[in-house]
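Fold sample X.
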Amino acid sequence: ASEAGLALLPLVAISVPGSWIAGRVMVRSERYLWISIAGGAMAAVCFCALAFADGMSLWLFLVILSVGSFGIGPMFSTTMATMQNAVARDQIGTATGAMNYARAMMSSFAVAGFTAILMGVLGNSAAGRENIDLARELSASEAIAAFRYIFLTAGLMMGGAALAMALMEERPLA
């Protein structure tokens, strides 16, 4: 349980410095979307690497997850600043609230989607066994196989986010 909790820390803690650095880049550069594109691509590569890795130590897992989480960070600040820059000044509050709502809603959908993937994969691996209690009868190989799909999905989502950032119009910041 303590290792599982430790493994979640990079997702929360390491994205913040990535967002802060992106904010500093945006202040100093006319071209600012590149940091989100690079961060999203870096996160996609890291998450896909986690999907295909075998026999990885906890510390190597944490390093790769940290690098991927650092790549997610720039997307937070650049999308918010870009959105606020694209609307009229009197609509910034409304647009910010709408974006935060959409971000929270999509986070809920992502958790539900990842849970559905996990349960679908575990349900398929449990086929043929009656009355299985996944919390007690789950083998390490079943868990690893199930989480491969989750990391692969996360990698594909981050690749899609990086592509969306690449297609976004880059206006000079006000």
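Fold sample Y, listed below.
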Amino acid sequence: MMIIKVAWRNLWRNKRRTLLVLTSIVVGISATLVYDTLGRGMVLQMLNNQINTHYSHIQVHKKGYNDNKIVSNFIDNPQMIEKALKSEKSIIHYSPRTLVYGLIKYASNSSGIYLVGIDPGKEKNITVISRSILRGSYLSGIKNEIVISEKLAQKLEVDTGNNIVVMVNTLQGPIGMESFVISGIYRSPNSEFDKMYVYIPLKSSQELLGLGSRIHEFAMKTDDMGNIAAVAGRLESMLGKNMETLDFKELIPTMAYYVDMYDQMMLVFYLIIGIAVMFGSSNAMLMAVLERIREFGVLMSIGMRNMRIFRLILTEALIMGFLGTITGFLIGYLIYLPLSSSGIDFSIYAESLEKWGIGSVMYPVLELGSILNSILVVPLAVLAGALYAARKAIKLQPTEALRYV
């Protein structure tokens, strides 16, 4: 306790130098924390938008379907899969789907699409499409309804109430063609997704494709993002080798890679901040030691052990590091707190952001890793920077130190 009191007093012998070092730590920590939470929020928003727009947490298909989405790669016994999904308590919602590539046509305009057949009541618990309707209404289950995106409606020059023609390959071989009435137009957070995906009732899709009661996939949500891999593993063991159970990391590997890459990038960023702080604190502590050489000589000559002097200098550095870190973290947290609920509006860049699957409002996200990095990196860096100054102090000879000018 005595060392802490002496170290605290020594820090304020030169207020200007101490305040300068503290200010650099505070600004660095608070700015880095805000940057980290905003960047993490952006990456997680991209991931969550893709999960909630289509991919869900886990999908079950016939083996090989994810690599080759053709009409004949269907699940022959969906009732068996549904029974397994109901037995897994961690799965809170699931939705059967058909999904094939096709062509949509209106007058002289046409576009390639992914035609998704869904159960409207179940699908609304999996994706946000039902909550993203701009005009008209979501699917009610009536035959020959279709929901398309705003992007696609603009390209085809259509609106709600118009009849459009969908053409797809059927299970029997020939091209299937059917007319649908546009019941609703949606806009998701991902404009690239919107260019391709259209939705019709599951029964209409099964009839058009000639599938009978068969489907192509089950999409599902779990009660905890942390146990998705375990749930997928249990399902895979239950369903057998002819089925594939893929979690979102396997379905959208690019996004999973972005999340991992961001974590590694921020770790490097914190290390750079730590190295900068280490050299700055090392310079400050070395100056503090050089100013007190005669004082250290007196302490050594009256019997103070070198290790106590060593501990004293390191304690001064730790106090400065923790004081700056805690203050910087609190300032950064106070900036983060209102932004986490209101977000930061980037509407001016909305069109560009939508291409990356990001909403126009970004919400910072503070996770445990960011807190630990903010609180631990700088004090350890300051401590490392003080080691050279502390070592230099204990190498002094008392007689030489007393004569030092």
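Sample Y note: Residues 171 and 210 are 6 Å apart (CA to CA).
Also: The first strand starts at residue 58 and ends at 62.
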